[in-house]
Amino acid sequence: MLVAAAVCPCPPLLVPEVAAGAAPELDGLRAACLDAVAVLAAARPDRLVVLGPADVTGRGPHPQGTAGSFRGLGVDLDVQLGKAPQDAGPAGDRVLPQSLAVAAWLLERTQWTAAPVEGLGVGEELETERCLAAGRELAGSAERVALLVMGDGSACRTVKAPGYLDERAEPFDTAAARALGAADTAVLAALDAELAYELKAAGRAPWQVLAGAGEGAGLSGVLLYDEAPYGVGYHVAGWS
Length: 240
Known about the structure:
The chain is α/β, with parallel strands linked by helices.
């Protein structure tokens, strides 16, 4: 059963070493993300699943101890998704997708030890019904499940945004933020997948996995951050 969730965006700029001189601009966002992760720890889960958007090579499960890196962005920084179990075999050649690498950085920053952790890379184009089904399966995988859900809103909020300005972006982000802040699984499940794709909202699929997991859980939510720096919608919420 889902007992807690934290929703965070996943721009690499969240990591100060990547943001470099621009790091202070996102201090408020970082603080909100750390507060959201604290909600997870307070719920005393048996299992933490971190999920976020991923391309074909990063989709699927990523066991505890999987490594990630920001070297592709010119930063000499490696991360690991929780501590590898002592009896674990070779880590293999899987590497965390960017969204889960940012999540791993957040967990390292908070010194996460509250529960075993694993990752799940979600395809951005995954159909809504499959997202909901995956969420229900995750919720039923342990007595007390927590989710750290990574994903950005639209990338079309201004003319300088990655997707340029689209007048549909702000209403989409507003609806998503309200649903995330209210733990409204029905509204999240009803988000338009095609519109989200057009608006480059990478968080749509992970949010709908969360919606499936949260069905019937009776959780309440709080919206901790809702802004669009750089023309991209960033939402942070905690469910408990």
